[in-house]
Write a structure and sequence with these properties.
This protein folds into 4 domains: 18-120, Immunoglobulin-like (Sandwich), CATH 2.60.40.740; 131-221 and 252-262, Immunoglobulin-like; 270-381, Immunoglobulin-like; 457-518, no CATH class. It contains 6 helices and 32 strands. The chain has helices at 6-20, 407-448, 457-464, 468-475, 483-498, 506-518; strands spanning 24-28, 32-34, 39-46, 50-51, 57-58, 61-75, 78-89, 95-97, 101-104, 107-110, 114-119, 131-137, 141-143, 148-157, 164-167, 175-179, 184-188, 191-202, 206-210, 214-226, 242-254, 258-263, 272-281, 285-287, 292-302, 317-321, 325-331, 334-347, 351-353, 357-362, 367-372, 376-381. Strands 23, 25, 26, 27, 28, 30 and 31 form a 7-stranded mixed beta sheet that branches. A 5-stranded antiparallel beta sheet has the order 1-3-7-6-5, with no helix packed on it. Strands 12, 14, 16, 17 and 18 form a 5-stranded antiparallel beta sheet that branches.
Amino acid sequence: MKTLNLGKTAILLLFPFLLLAGSVSIEVDKPAVYAGDSVSFTIKAKGESVKFPDITDIDGFSIIGTSNSQSTVIINGKVDKSISKTYTFAPTKDVTIPSFKIEIDNKTYETKPLKIKILHPSASTGTNEPVQVEIKAQKETLYVGEPVKVDVILKQRADFRADKMEISEPKFKDFWVKKLEGVDKGVDGEYITQTYSYIIFPQKAGDFTINPIFARIGKAVRVRQNMGGLFNDPFFHDPFFNSFNTRIQWKKIFSNSLTFHVKALPDNLEVYGDYIISAKVDKTKVKANKPVNLTVTIAGEGNIDDIKKFDPDIDNAVVYADEPKISAKVQNNKYVGTFTQKIAVIAENSFTIPSLEFTYFDKNLKKPVTKKTKPIKIEVIGGVKKEHKKPVIEEQKSTKKEITPTASVKEKIKTVVKTEDSYIKYLFLFTGFIVGIFSVLGYLKLRSLKLPKKEIDIIKKIKKAKNDKKLFEVLLPYAKDDEFISKTLQRLEENIYNGNKNKIDKEELIEYFEDKEER
């Protein structure tokens, strides 16, 4: 059985007085951090009544989190309270935490100022480093819209063990980014590698820097707790006072940075690469008011996602252009894909689908290239023939000489015309009154009769449409008539091509066309 010696007993007797010593203090969890990392400082105060200042920022950097803790110790019947308040902020430059005034039991105490230094990261690529992070790009000089593959490589020496490992995402400002799925694992000398890949597309010209990313390496360590960590005397290493906690100790390592020089495309072009274009129809002969389905396909390598939708203008025809579908993937470190767009055309007479043009900056020729489809003639059967207006022949001017009446004749004509005008005026007034009465009576009579509605042709077709595709074809000629029809066509299109299950109310459609007929 262990017994306490006199020295240890003396320290125990002094223990209450040590607890009571001091009234206010401040400490920081780390005196130096990397830009943007968080740092926390804690103000501790002892007393019955404690008032902390209202701290909202440190040198302009907002407080992003606070926490409180409190402990109470009763010694010889006296209650001693200890209150701590922790503040967290994330500076990006060197700052000084100023002195703060704390009111404790109606007395004012001040904390000491603390300096926080900002560190500047350097790449951890030394040969002796157990963990390294590297960013690589296929090329660093490129055009707007030109896709380039970027790899983030995390290297870990085979004999090194970490309990936790985290890696940050690179920030590609002014680039459109597509992250590739999966992690490519491999071996590079004595290092085991994990590669995360991205395809990036510059959106504008200029010089752009990708800042270093970092990895956090965590190792579990045992931390000795001895009465709150107040004492380091060997006496307190006794198991009576000791306990152990396990916590993760983190270390940050940084990658290199990347700088890209991006050149502008000529003629305000947006698409870069190497492509082919084609257009085909499902039929070249069609009945009047039935759709011809045109499919436009562009295939190749480059920023295919930036190709704009085609919306051809065809005289005397209704054109309904679907949204394009794009399928793309990385193949042999190249971004390749296919752009597909369907366009429906309806007309009453034969027409020609014009040539469609697509202009881009060719990656091989290093200049703008325009590719075209061939015009396609469509024969419409059973349509209404166009009427040709007959030429208007102007009547020849009369060569007869006009006879001017004398003044006396003019006066007589005036008198006769005046008399006749008065008579005709009253005659028309009376006739109009009689006709108005009969018109009102006729209208009222017609309103009282319930005449059967004549079912218009479009309503018959709506009722007969057995599925969404048939109904889509029926409504397509009316695509530009009204927003209601346009939205209905869009919902039908989603059902047909995307497998959606939008509910289409035929009764609502029938009411729409009935109202339109009455108007």
